[in-house]
Amino acid sequence: MSDTQGRGSTSPLPGGDTFPPPTALAEAANVGADAYERAAADRLGFWADAARRLEWAQQWDEVLDWSNPPFAKWFVGGKLNVAVNCVDRHVAAGHGEQVAYHWVGEPGDTRTITYAQLQDAVCQAANALTSLGVQAGDRVAVYLPMIPEAVVTMLACARIGAVHMVVFGGFSSDALASRITDADAKVVVTADGGYRRGAPSALKPAVDEALTKLGDAVRSVLVVRRTGGDVEWTEGRDVWWHELVDAQPTTHAAQAFDAEHPLYIMYTSGTTAKPKGILHTSGGYLTQVAWSHHAVFDLKPDTDVYWTAADVGWVTGHSYIVYGPLANRATSVMYEGTPETPHRGRWWEIVQEYGVTVLYTAPTTIRTFMKWGDDVPAGFDLSSLRLLGSVGEPINPEAWLWYHANIGGGRCPVVDTWWQTETGGHMITPLPGVTATKPGSAQVPLPGISARVVDEAGEPIEPGATGYLVLTEPWPSMLRTIWGDDDRYVDTYWSRYGKTVYFAGDGAKLDEDGDIWLLGRVDDVMNVSGHRISTTEVESALVSHPTVAEAAVVGATDATTGQGIVAFVILRGNAVDSGDELVAELRQHVRKEIGPIASPRQIMVVAELPKTRSGKIMRRLLRDVAENRELGDVTTLTDSSVMDLIGAKLPGTPSE
């Protein structure tokens, strides 16, 4: 479809166009409009059907036990093995020679791994972990770069019933130590290093430093040789992957585990300095990530080449690099490096070489590509792409339209997915064969998901109003608790509107069609002179200016207005920073786009923004700087030195 065909203009934010599904995709879509009707008529029956897409060793007795909210149990009495569902059953069905992963290393080395080869590797790793004394229920810390061994380790843990706890590669030793301690992990799987921005980046030293703080709490460190760099070695504790794992037999008798058996812990930033260990279990989680991957990406396992351009170290990697795609027998691309190494067309080179059909990435990355210019992707053949996805934060309409036009050639639906580490899987998103998509809107809950936008009192809001996003019914892939802290789990997510209503922590707006527009975290909704203004709306206005590539906005305490709007902007590559003149121009632009009330009190041009490895801008830290507070938890940042640079540039008094 061309950029101008079939558009409406019902969107309440900039970029008010709608794009109907391509006819051919809609006709062959995995999931049609009838799914909404089936789920509305029998929600639990709908999820039971989704669970039957998996292989169960023992059928469940009850789909959902919600007798003790907010502690849910799904598929009660059912038993399955997650790794068998992701690998073995496909090999048994005759698909062993199908490629599971096309892995691309940053230096240009590649590995092609079939399902049969993946099965062998997972069995070897399962035997190796068992030989190190790992048993069902034990926690294993995983601190690896984006290499196949990361996936193998996760699946090996799942196979033997161990609970994996993946920590982003490159996190500090302090961050690693705190997570190992909280999870009480006895084994760490790491590598000598990985490749990042064209050079080896060591990992083992951070593990060594972390473990000096923990005494003898960790008994074994399993080390993958990736870069060949020198490493310190502790005899009796450290063991090479290639010496232990590669010597193991390629067979392993997998046992089935209860549907509620813990699968993994994922740490996410909290408002306090202590990160939260989000616990996900097995049956319900795999059911929802497999079904949503099948539905939202319209995955055709015999023909698609699927690429989630993210890191396995955060939840998108867990759900949509590992568990969802493998459960659906996908052929995936997995890339170790950064988008600009060795050149800014690296991603598009990979799409062209492997014939990628489905691409899933974050708005922050899309905006980076925008900054680099249209000519970079234009130099590659991207005609294999048929579907695009967005994840991590609300995507501003400008970035959506650029992605659709320059990467999707104007023909690919863009599925803007809202979900969280806590939800485990997609919750609000278009269905590509059903939904007329709106740039910037996640639109409607998936079939089987009950979401509302409510006011302070918990009452549903009218179209056009702004409120809070809540989930009013339990869902299969929901978090079960915060590891070791049930009280914090209840207080954080289930106290605002009662123990049966999940408070997502996000603000949202309903348009006249009933579609949902996510406005970012509630603590990113500013109150300026009694007006509730979303950081997302101000950021979208700033990014719509031709000089701005990316923006982050926070509300800082203001004696006059309650909160003042402070904006941090990154300029496009060809833009010139004219100082006060540019600031005045941007402020006027926001006044024109939204209104005088949204005019930023301060605008600062910066080189980088504080981001997590998942691509999320940490606005909480920007707010700390803007209010001259001590920084909170910075362990999830890619580069904590960014905050020093921003703090040094922040003036002590507001600009006029």
TrEMBL record:
Cofactor: Mg(2+)
Binding site for CoA: R196, R197, G198, A199, T316, S529, R591
UniProt-listed Pfam families: ACAS_N, AMP-binding, AMP-binding_C
Domain AMP-binding enzyme C-terminal: from-to ranges: 537-616
Sequence positions that bind ATP: G392, E393, P394, D416, T417, W418, W419, Q420, T421, D506, R521, R532
CDD domains listed in its UniProt record: ACS
Domain Acetyl-coenzyme A synthetase N-terminal: 34-86
Keywords on record: Acetylation, ATP-binding, Ligase, Magnesium, Metal-binding, Nucleotide-binding
GO biological process annotation, one example: acetyl-CoA biosynthetic process from acetate
Domain AMP-dependent synthetase/ligase: 90-475
Catalytic activity annotation: acetate + ATP + CoA = acetyl-CoA + AMP + diphosphate
Function: Catalyzes the conversion of acetate into acetyl-CoA (AcCoA), an essential intermediate at the junction of anabolic and catabolic pathways. AcsA undergoes a two-step reaction. In the first half reaction, AcsA combines acetate with ATP to form acetyl-adenylate (AcAMP) intermediate. In the second half reaction, it can then transfer the acetyl group from AcAMP to the sulfhydryl group of CoA, forming the product AcCoA.
Membership in a protein family: Belongs to the ATP-dependent AMP-binding enzyme family.
Protein's recorded name: Acetyl-coenzyme A synthetase
Protein's gene: acs
